[in-house]
Each structure stands twice: as C-alpha cells, then as structure tokens.
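Minutes, project check-in

Agenda point 3 was the complex the collaborators sent over. CS summarized: two entities, 227 residues total, and the question is how they sit relative to each other. Sequences were read into the notes so everyone works from the same version.
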Amino acid sequence: AQKVTQAQTEISVVEKEDVTLDCVYETRDTTYYLFWYKQPPSGELVFLIRRNSFDEQNEISGRYSWNFQKSTSSFNFTITASQVVDSAVYFCALSDTGRRALTFGSGTRLQVQP
Amino acid sequence: DAGVIQSPRHEVTEMGQEVTLRCKPISGHDYLFWYRQTMMRGLELLIYFNNNVPIDDSGMPEDRFSAKMPNASFSTLKIQPSEPRDSAVYFCASSFVTIETQYFGPGTRLLVL
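CS then shared the predicted structure for the full assembly.
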C-alpha cells in the first residue's frame, strides 16, 4: 500500500529565511513518481515538480530545490530566501504502477511572516 | 491552452437535494480524476477514468455518489441525495498517459445544509 507522510503540520518563518518541508513515502513498487503541489489561500492546487524513481538527481528551480533520496524514502523541498507569497499549504504526493491516482500527504502549512 | 475547467465553483444546497459537479479536462488528456478535500480526510481519490472508462472507483464513498464520462471532454460527479457530510471541495484533474503530471481544476466548494 502507498503512504505519504508529512510530519510537519505547520511551519512559521520570517521572510528571507530558508525552510525545508519534509516528505517520506512508502510504496512496494519500483517504478513510481513523486510530486509536490502548492495550495495557496485561494484554494487551487498548483503543480511544482514531478520526479520518477529512477532519477535521483536533485533539482533546483529558482528559489526552490528538491532533494530525492531513495535510501531514506524521502523527497524534501527547500525554499531559499522565503517570501510572503510562499505562504501556502504544500502537498507531497505519490503515484505508482499499482495505483495510478495520487496518494497525498496531509500537507504542511507554511506561513512566511514579513 | 485552457486548463481543467470545473463548474460550478461554489454550490450551496439543502440536504436531500441532487448535486451535479462538472469537469472539462485539458484537451488531449486521456486520464481524468475526481478528488475530494476535507479537513478530516485531506485529499482523497474518488474515481478515475482512462479514455472515458472508469478504472478505479474504490474511493467513491457510497451509492449516493456516481460519476460518468460520456466523452473525452466532459465528466460529471453526481451526489443524490446529498448529506451535510458531503460538504467538501471537489477537484477534477487530468493527465496525459498514466503517471504523468496531473493538472487540477479550481475545484467546486460544496456546502450541504
């Protein structure tokens, strides 16, 4: 069975601080995909990144970076120099060949104070 | 290109009434997913379709819920009769080829009184 755990329920930082959101996953499949989505206060779900299980390269996109480690079943997300606009709920999600829909974590609410 | 379109954006109804939620996926996408978001249960899959055929409806809570996809550009999720515990945000998402990125619509916020 699939499972995604986001142990951090809420994080509060001051603008310009770096912050890391943790994600730990479980799956029996060897082929799987990991995702991060952002849900701002307006409520929509915005896709941020997709990673497949065969690609452990870390990725950087502007102030965002992702650290995928199969050895610890983790896919962590770091925001560098956080901004107020980063305030949102962030979801980590998993899909695999056994269950093609997304299994979501419970989300981490990030509040960036000015 | 337009993203996933959902209607209505907000729906307030009374217990016992029929509710129909609508979704238009991104053109060319062959997978369509319905998810529900509640405070208690978070984001959970209700049902998904591949090429208009339902593949997994194990998340549909009970017989009061039904979903159809009559063609590649339209899907409905119906609740009959509705109950207060059905109050939630219902998201539709679509993707091209399984396991590819799912793009979400803006959601329908349903309140059943």
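Noted in discussion: The CA atoms of residues 66 and 94 of chain B lie 18 Å apart.
Follow-up: revisit at the next meeting once the mutant set is ready.
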